[in-house]
């Protein structure tokens, strides 16, 4: 799908807890994937996934201390693993990341369906003060 031809160092960065974090994360991931000589189609899918995960965090969660969120990615034996960590929410049931049915006329609600379609696997880790959503995109 997106074979990396160069070794690259894993990334972990804090971004402001704001809508602008989506484009910052996309730009940073794009540059990193370019350094790894990853195929453009694969890079597009990876950037779409990180956009959805960061956008969902900003819309549906609370920030980490310092009004930030953390994004991280690395290439490991399973593929490209993307992770987004936020401060979680008080409503741990309703705000749990999940795929929801969206009507054709809905203007939102498709984010996790997109992630589920493009990723080989995605999951959530939740603690008392943070939530991390991970997605793995296979690279072969």
Low-confidence stretches: none
Total strand segments = 5
How many distinct domains?
A: 1
Order of helices and strands: EHHEEHEE
Shape label: globular
Biggest sheet strand order reads: 1-2-3-5-4
Question: What does the largest sheet look like?
Answer: 5 strands, antiparallel
Measured by DSSP, the beta-strand proportion falls in 25-35%
Structural class: alpha+beta
Identify the CATH class. Answer: Alpha Beta
Q: Radius of gyration in whole Å, from Cα?
A: 15 Å
- Tally of separate helices: 3
Domain Histidine kinase/HSP90-like ATPase: 16-134
InterPro entries: Anti-sigma-factor_SerPK, HATPase_C_sf, HATPase_dom
Keywords: Kinase, Serine/threonine-protein kinase, Transferase
Organism: Nocardioides massiliensis
Structure description:
The chain has 140 residues and is of the alpha+beta class. The chain has one domain: Heat Shock Protein 90. The protein has helices spanning 20-35, 40-60, 111-118, and strands spanning 11-16, 68-76, 79-86, 121-126, 131-137. A five-stranded antiparallel β-sheet has the order 1-2-3-5-4, covered by helices on one side. Helix 1 packs antiparallel against helix 2 and helix 2 (40-60) packs antiparallel against helix 3 (111-118). The model has no long low-confidence stretch (mean pLDDT 85).
């Amino acid at each position: 799908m997106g074979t990396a031809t160069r070794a690259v160092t894993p990334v972990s960065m804090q971004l402001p807890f704001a809508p602008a974090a989506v484009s910052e994360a996309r730009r940073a991931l794009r540059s990193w994937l370019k350094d790894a000589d990853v195929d453009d189609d694969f890079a597009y899918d990876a950037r779409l996934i990180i956009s959805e995960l960061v956008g969902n965090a900003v819309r549906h969660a609370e920030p980490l201390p310092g009004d930030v969120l953390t994004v991280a990615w690395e290439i490991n034996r399973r593929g490209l693993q993307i992770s987004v960590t936020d401060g979680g929410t008080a409503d741990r049931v309703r705000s749990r990341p999940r795929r929801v049915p969206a009507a054709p006329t809905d203007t939102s609600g498709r984010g996790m369906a997109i992630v589920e379609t493009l990723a080989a696997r995605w999951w959530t880790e939740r603690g008392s003060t943070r939530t991390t959503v991970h997605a793995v995109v296979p690279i072969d």
